[in-house]
Amino acid sequence: MTDQRTCAYCRERVRGRSDKKFCNDTCRNAFNNRLNSELNSSIREINSKLKRNRRILEGLLKGDEPFVKVRKEALLNKGFQLSYQTHTRKSTKGSLYHFCYDYGYTMMGEEAVVVKSSQ
User: Fold this and answer.
1) Given 7, 17, 29, 53, which residue has the most CB atoms within 10 angstroms?
2) Which residues of 102-117 are buried (b: 16+ CB within 10 A; e: fewer)?
């Protein structure tokens, strides 16, 4: 009886153990890399937006300033996306801060934003 199994990646003939799915390690790695790439692309995209938001917030804080007040428009013009955040926290004064990792912001009315570091 001849064994007609084919590689799950390149469709070449597979030789060896009966449970073997790939003809070699290169095909196995390429198959799994492609599978993981497709599954994780949305996660990578979200993480990229979160990191961009963090860099923008970090760039607004100069030196040892604990916080800075900026116009919401200025934040948005830098590419900040308000809908991407890692967590929220309420301050002792009741303000709701939205964080991108270790940098957060709170809205002050419709036009102003206060940016601070959680450190």
Assistant:
1) 53
2) ebbbbeeeeeebbbbe
**In this structure, is residue 56 part of a structural domain?**
yes
| Eight-class DSSP state of 114 | E
- Give the domain extent around 50: 25-117
pLDDT tens track for 42-99: 888 999 999 999 999 999 988 778 899 999 999 999 999 999 999 999 989 999 999 9
Closest of 36, 31, 29 to residue 11, by C-alpha: 31
End-to-end CA separation in angstroms for the chain: 69
Write down the mean pLDDT value for the chain.
90
Query: For position 1, what pLDDT does the model report?
Result: 46
Tokens matching residue 48: 């990229």
**Are 106 and 94 a contacting pair, CB within 8 Å?**
no
In a domain, 8, yes or no: no
Instruction: Provide the 10 A C-beta neighbour count for residue 47.
Output: 13
| Residue 92 forms part of a structural domain | yes
